[in-house]
Amino acid sequence: MCDKCYQSGFNTPEEFTLEGEFGKYVWDVTSASRMIHPGRKTYNIPSSVVRSLLVHAKIEPLHTRHVDPTKPGILAKIGTRVALIDGAHRALRCLEENRPFTAYLLSSRESEACMVKRPGFRTRHPAA
Questions:
Q1: Given this model, what pLDDT does residue 45 score?
Q2: Where are the alpha helices (DSSP H) in the chain?
Q3: How many domains, the chain?
Q4: Pick from 104, 89, 88, 102: which is nearest to 38 by CA?
Q5: Are 41 and 103 a contacting pair, CB within 8 Å?
Q6: Could you give the CA distance from residue 63 to residue 5 in angstroms, rounded to a whole number?
Q7: Tell me, what's the pLDDT at 115?
Q8: CB burial string 67-87: b at 16+ within 10 A, e below
Q9: Fewer Cβ within 10 Å of end Cβ, the chain: N or C?
Q10: Are 113 and 32 in contact (CB under 8 A)?
Q11: CB-count burial class (<10 Å; 0-12, 13-18, 19+) for 49
Q12: 110 is a domain residue
């Protein structure tokens, strides 16, 4: 969590929830972050894709101003789709400043390993 948000009372979630007509998915972002090793490949995400990924994001405008836009986000796989489970504020800032946004892409196996809820399955608690 960034210090400025902590001081202002805005706490970033350790889980990311994506909910819509397709159902509800929840990922443990802390577990996903632990899967990112030094030297892992990042991908440049086109602006049009960033916009589509942000459709379901909950954005706190004050937070966007002081995030580090050079830090990559994290994408998780849902079948043939992807979800931006970490980095929505950084992605939005990149869009606003017309700069490239990069992200790590979790494999299907990694995406499943940090998922704590999905449609049709009971909620599972991540390993501590």
A1: 97
A2: 3-8, 29-34, 47-53, 61-64, 88-96, 108-113
A3: 1
A4: 104
A5: no
A6: 7
A7: 92
A8: bebeebbbbbbbeeebbbbbb
A9: C
A10: no
A11: middle
A12: yes
Report if residue 24 sits inside a domain.
Answer: yes
Distance CA 44, CA 46 (A): 6
Q: How many CB atoms lie within 10 A of CB 35?
A: 16
125 found inside a domain: no
The phi and psi torsions of 104 (rounded to 5 degrees) equal: -85, 145
pTM of the complete model beyond 0.85:
no
Rounded to an integer, what distance in angstroms lies between the CA atom of residue 100 and that of residue 122?
38
Dihedral of alpha carbons 68, 105, 96, 63, sign: negative
pLDDT for residue 121: 61
Joined tokens for residue 61: 């405008």
pLDDT tens by residue, the chain, 128 residues: 455 555 544 444 587 877 766 778 889 999 999 999 999 999 999 999 999 999 878 888 777 888 999 999 999 998 888 999 999 999 999 999 999 999 999 999 999 999 988 776 655 555 54
Q: Is residue 128 part of a domain?
A: no
- Domain extent for 77: 14-117
